[in-house]
UniProtKB/TrEMBL annotation:
Domain of life assignment: Bacteria
Pathway: Amino-acid biosynthesis; L-serine biosynthesis; L-serine from 3-phospho-D-glycerate: step 2/3; Cofactor biosynthesis; pyridoxine 5'-phosphate biosynthesis; pyridoxine 5'-phosphate from D-erythrose 4-phosphate: step 3/5
Keywords: Amino-acid biosynthesis, Aminotransferase, Cytoplasm, Pyridoxal phosphate, Pyridoxine biosynthesis, Serine biosynthesis, Transferase
Source species: Aggregatibacter segnis ATCC 33393
Enzyme class, broadest EC rank: transferase
Name recorded for this polypeptide: Phosphoserine aminotransferase
Enzyme Commission code: 2.6.1.52
InterPro entries, sorted: Aminotrans_V_dom, Aminotrans_V_PyrdxlP_BS, Pser_aminoTfrase, PyrdxlP-dep_Trfase, PyrdxlP-dep_Trfase_major, PyrdxlP-dep_Trfase_small
Length: 360
């Protein structure tokens, strides 16, 4: 089991040190003789955990004081609906930048709540490449502009923040949150499911600017109303306490290893190692332009479906798990989120070299 590396796109692997601490504390958290899953979410100790997790997350991401951090449920899909309910005026409209499957899915959901304009920001051609991101001439007619900086299925990442002038920019950072430094002040709202870089599935973080809170339409359910959640410390109902606890451990772990500057350098090194190998290979192909290659999700293929299936089966047997590409795209996908050590990427490349030699 020591040689297993999990390349799952989500739920993804978590830091080993975090899982070991959770294991040690599972039956006796804070000397209480009970698990953290068994204590009241409104008790003194758990409320202290909540306050510390907020402080640690704010420190990691350098979040300005005029932003609230909410710990919610329902995943990113829940936010696909919550965002228009909170930000889209009754007769207003929003702009969605389409860079792939998840940005398109978010736009589809939002159409249930108002007028949605959609712009495809991928250039036509054999390579997946993002067009110009300057929308300053049109953005301010919209209540908000939404985009997804990392498309997990295709492996397309947008490193530049779209220029939307004074409009509200909304980002779905589910698959790239805490992977590199960003300027929070350029966004009105950021949301992310936890199950890739923050913790286990079951909790979703929303970072929202103060002036955007309190504008939800009357029909918005209380669980999706940002003002209600803010005033209730994200606890209008019982939150997923174990997931929140694990996120808190992850935040502390990331701070202990150097925070985002160190995390970003590790992620750049892992991605460079794998892409450099792919660029030098005649056996595997990646069809994403270099400027938009994801640091988190590296897609590749042999160009042959049967050979791809053989690759996945033999990789799994070799302890390299979850390399099958998404059903929408096929091929292979190596998700190398924060918790993936560089040794995992090195092991993958060694296997890829061996497989290519045996199947050329």
């Amino acid at each position: 089991m020591a040689n297993v590396f999990n390349f799952s796109a989500g739920p993804a692997m978590m830091p080993k040190a975090v899982l070991e601490q959770a294991q040690q504390e599972l039956l006796n958290w804070q000397g209480q003789g009970t698990s953290v899953m068994e204590v009241s979410h409104r008790g003194k100790l758990f409320m202290e955990l909540i306050a510390q997790s907020q402080a640690d997350f704010r420190k990691l991401y350098n979040i300005p004081e005029n932003y609230q951090v909410l710990f919610l449920q329902g995943g990113a899909r829940g936010q696909f609906a919550a965002i228009p309910m909170n930000l889209l005026r009754e007769n207003g409209k929003a702009l969605y930048l389409n860079s792939g499957h998840w940005s398109a899915t978010a736009a589809k959901e939002a159409r249930s709540f108002g007028e949605i304009d959609e712009i495809n920001i991928l250039e036509a051609g054999d390579e997946l490449k993002v067009k110009s991101l300057d929308f300053s001439d049109i953005a301010e007619q919209y209540d908000y502009v939404h985009y997804c900086p990392n498309e997990t299925i295709s492996g397309v990442e947008i490193f530049d923040v779209p220029n939307v002038g004074n409009a509200v920019l909304v980002g779905d950072l589910s698959s790239t949150i805490l992977s590199r430094k960003i300027d929070i002040s350029k966004f009105g709202l950021i949301y992310a499911g936890a199950q890739k870089n923050l913790g286990p599935a079951g909790i979703t973080i929303v970072i929202v600017r103060d002036d955007l809170i309190g504008k939800a339409r009357k029909a918005t359910p209380s669980i999706w109303n940002y003002e209600t959640q803010k005033n209730s410390d994200s606890m209008i109902n019982t939150p997923p306490t174990f997931a929140w606890y694990l996120c808190a451990l992850v935040f502390k772990h990331l701070l202990s290893i150097g925070g985002l500057p160190e995390i970003e350098q590790r992620n750049l090194a892992k991605a460079k190692l794998l892409y450099d190998y792919l660029d030098g290979s005649d056996f595997y192909q990646n069809n994403v332009a270099k400027a938009n290659r994801s640091l988190m999700n590296v897609t590749f293929t042999t160009g042959n479906d049967e050979l791809n299936a053989k690759f996945v089966a033999e990789a799994t047997a070799a302890g390299l798990q979850a390399l099958k590409g998404h059903k929408v795209l096929g091929g292979m996908r190596a998700s190398i989120y924060n918790a993936m050590p560089i040794e995992g990427v090195q092991a993958l490349i060694q296997f890829m070299q061996k497989f290519a030699k045996e199947n050329a």
